[in-house]
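User: If only I could read backbone structure tokens as easily as an amino acid sequence. Those tokens are not coordinates but codes from a learned vocabulary of shapes. Could you go through the record with me and say what the backbone is doing? Here is the record:
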Amino acid sequence: MGVDLRFIPTAAKRVLDRKAFYAQLVVTDACNLRCAYCDEYLADAPLVGLDALRRRVDRLDELGALVFDFLGGEPLLHPGLAELVAHAKSKRGGSNLATVITNGFLLTRENVRALSAAKLDFMQVSVDTLEPTELSQKAVRPLLPKLRLLAEEARFKVEIQTVLSERSVEEYADFRQALEGLPFSFGFSLRHEPGGRIAIRGRRYLELLERHGVFEGVNFYGEHLREMLLGDDSRPWKCLAGSKFLYINAAGEAQWCGQQRGWRIPLETLDLDGLAANDEHKPCESGCVIGCARMVSHTLGEPLRTLGASLSLAGQSLRARPAEPVGQGAAVFRSPCPERDQTGERSGQGR
């Protein structure tokens, strides 16, 4: 299977219409890890009820969402996750896209098979370092058995996502060597401060990113990233969070993104007029590296400028996705959200 051909013309309509395009839905604030850089988990948070989550998917679909990210906390803590993915994929005849963003430690043969049966499209596994550190518990060594299980069983595409920091940039060659042979793609997140502003600077980060191709295909704002890494945040852009991009917290409230919590509205009261009202500049735009919000904003807000990246992503996505597990010769895919797992963002617990 690959991305349904119907996705592309429907997605193209979002350039001109008033509807949403991309939604991130928190299924729980609880997490099995305690990463120091994460400020968005609650150790004993309850799971959101499956019926409530289904209703949120229904409402997001009514508002036009074509892409769903299911995240936490750690979404694999939710026993109804596969059912929720299946519910989302029941919309639009399955021509939409569904992703689970996880730290991977709770993967089992049973839940990987269940997510495959639910027609999950992508899984993003957040892995930062070779060994656990005070900053991040998401490390290669203890996670390797789970990653090998994914390679054996998954019928969805998998990306390993790494927060770029002083530690990870120094050991990235060894990091990749440790994962050699696994049929996954790889991406980066840029470490940011609370609020989403970039927290790393320097040419060595830029060189690493360019060497590993992060600016190819799905990078819709490469020049912005280059400039920010070199200390220049001045290039203007318009954030479409709350409009084309929606973030739904565990309470069922829409907010601009995981880091901006000043604007909140119950999802059930959000309508197309509310989406249109958020089609405006945000005060937090300068220096922002919230990847999914930026990807959507540049793709739909600057369609001619980002056409090449869009066509490249579409070309990769339309390659046949295997019916067999990814470990059996499957093509890999770079995540549509290249900076998803960022310091302070909803990520350290499986985001």
